């Protein structure tokens, strides 16, 4: 989960590398570094522990010669702490070779022992330096960076994207990938490599996706892609749909604030082009009807917030398609020998499309004969390319580590998927399906109303709660995953203890946590749409209130039943039961952001985390 960028061309590369790293910093921010081959043909390198700004300041204070071939890295530490020495690039071959890496090389100890026995020495604790030294060793043998890569890639176990350049071969950057992302950006007389398109989107929108176990060599004139055996392979071109400015803060105080404000657009853009005459028809799924008509079971795999989107969507998928649906954390799924086969559709959800646990779950499912569909926000990512079909969410680039707009887009995509499959299977009366479509289409404007009418109130109220030590979240039915999402968001960016519970579970243990003053958010179902559930949740509120809880109810407009028992009521517009979560989550996102901001924390780059978890 590091960010990687490479450049060859006529321009000085430092600025290109640094701005690429700025766009990739969401992938990791423990350290940053760059290396360039300067005009004199020497390899120069600078790396610093800490966020990219530390490197920027260092380069400003002590400029380094510039050059037209360069690589850059922003790190999320795995092997070795976040120190200058462990930062990338790592040098080898008498400091003429620079290497950067994303992933984990599982057999690095064996390789290191072998290299130590050959007399090599190491300056860091990283697995990357082992790959660098091995690459230097192989380069010594062949004098050819691509050939050296081929020899090294075959010996590495685990997941890796490696980029390297050698001062004896200026104008060349070579990369290899296995189970870790790498995309190519095609320019005019210049070419780029990046962990994702954000690395180069300000320079070109023309991209190539590299497959598994492939090696790419870029020069200013062209790109060559071969497999690990050296056979040339064809690559899939694609046009980046994101605008470079979409990944800029654009006057907002944080990317998270910007992305929360984009939640209405994320839903609207995900729906766009997929509703025709009141019916959902997903063009990307055209010709794949048998993928959905023959299945007897759906398993959704995902991690973190994406898994809560899965849990939310599962209710509608099962109800509308009448196909049994289960949701599993991707990292648990493949270690329990699940019963799956060609009648199972495994749906993966991932904003980044690179989450290693989710990718491995998809591969596992495919190997066992299951059909696979991915719901993904990032073009050219690995998970959609490993799946039989993909539904892209069109949330636009999500930069803040805390996932917000992607969450609502994922639920939207699941509803579209459910309605598409329900139409194919004839499991939902057309009138009912059309009602759901109308409800879904009304969601963006309703989210906008929550933002317009509640944001200032919630922000003020989150400031009052800045000293809170613990917050609980309760929900039932589709409100339950929203409670989990509310708790995750708060933990993640405000470092406050938070737990989400199914409200019905309260009396089975968690109610013991309630003491006077304990803040509890309660997701209250609509009394019009879900009278039975509403009554139960109001009873739950009374139970915790009787024990001194401070109740913050998220309830629909006009629900007066909660008023006598709630200390605060956050209002959401009226919506059908499946659509409430898309509205109710918005106050929780605003609250987490408001509270973290009140504590003076960096909401975009919370400690210990990275946006894209590309290690298991
Ligand atoms: O890129 P993905 O959607 O696969 O990421 C999954 C989780 O790592 C992610 O949702 C994480 O939980 C978020 N940081 C939560 O806000």
UniProtKB/TrEMBL annotation:
Give the UniProt subcellular location, in the record's own words: Cytoplasm
Q: InterPro entries this protein is in?
A: GATase_2_dom (IPR017932), GFAT (IPR005855), GFAT_N (IPR047084), GlmS/AgaS_SIS (IPR035466), GlmS/FrlB_SIS (IPR035490), Ntn_hydrolases_N (IPR029055), SIS_dom (IPR001347), SIS_dom_sf (IPR046348)
Quote the Gene3D superfamilies the UniProt record gives.
Glucose-6-phosphate isomerase like protein, domain 1, Glutamine Phosphoribosylpyrophosphate, subunit 1, domain 1
Q: Molecular function terms in GO for this entry?
A: glutamine-fructose-6-phosphate transaminase (isomerizing) activity
Ranges of residues in domain SIS = 288-427, 461-606
Q: Which UniProt keywords apply?
A: Aminotransferase, Cytoplasm, Glutamine amidotransferase, Repeat, Transferase
TM spans (from-to): none
Checking PROSITE patterns in the record gives: GATASE_TYPE_2, SIS
Q: Which residues form the active site?
A: 2, 611
Give the E.C. number(s). 2.6.1.16
* Enzyme class, spelled out: transferase
Q: Which residues form the Glutamine amidotransferase type-2 domain?
A: 2-221
**Reaction(s) this enzyme catalyzes, per UniProt:** D-fructose 6-phosphate + L-glutamine = D-glucosamine 6-phosphate + L-glutamate
Per the entry, what this protein does is: Catalyzes the first step in hexosamine metabolism, converting fructose-6P into glucosamine-6P using glutamine as a nitrogen source.
Assembly behavior: Homodimer.
Its name, as the record gives it, is Glutamine--fructose-6-phosphate aminotransferase [isomerizing]
Q: Which organism is this protein's natural source?
A: Microbacterium flavum
Name of encoding gene: glmS
